[in-house]
Inverse folding.
């Protein structure tokens, strides 16, 4: 359990999103940079990353967040800020920019244990670059 000034909570969200057109661009150095940026965002926003997998064509993020942050806000933060930071830092005139598809999946660990979600993400790390 975690606490804020006015709440005790245990809110864990599994968020999944894709690069635009589901292109397999999240490999090697790109995947490493995206991982690093996602951790920066979590630190800046006061969100704890419980598990993270960057696959060539999608991202699995399992986070714990205070109640003030709704899942849509979390998805928008991680998708929007990560693409802006990556494109600003790493995409030169010839470099490929990161563009995310519009949608995302968001689920809670309310009816399954967080360990179940973490195990699911770990199983998908086999293809992780």
């Amino acid at each position: 359990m975690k606490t804020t000034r006015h709440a005790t909570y245990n809110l864990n969200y599994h968020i999944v999103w894709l690069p635009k057109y589901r292109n397999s661009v999240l490999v090697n150095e790109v995947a490493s940079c995206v991982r690093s940026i996602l951790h920066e965002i979590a630190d800046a926003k006061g969100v704890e990353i419980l598990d993270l997998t960057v696959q060539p064509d999608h991202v699995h993020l399992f986070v714990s967040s205070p109640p003030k942050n709704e899942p849509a806000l979390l998805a928008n933060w991680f998708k929007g800020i990560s693409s802006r930071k990556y494109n600003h830092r790493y995409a030169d005139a010839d470099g490929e920019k990161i563009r995310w598809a519009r949608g995302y999946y968001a689920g809670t660990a309310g009816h399954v244990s967080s360990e179940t979600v973490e195990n699911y993400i770990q199983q998908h790390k086999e293809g992780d670059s």
Notes: Residues 50 and 63 are 5 Å apart (CA to CA). The chain has a mean pLDDT of 88. The chain is about 35% helix and 20% strand. The beta strands are 2-3, 8-9, 12-17, 48-55, 58-64, 105-108.
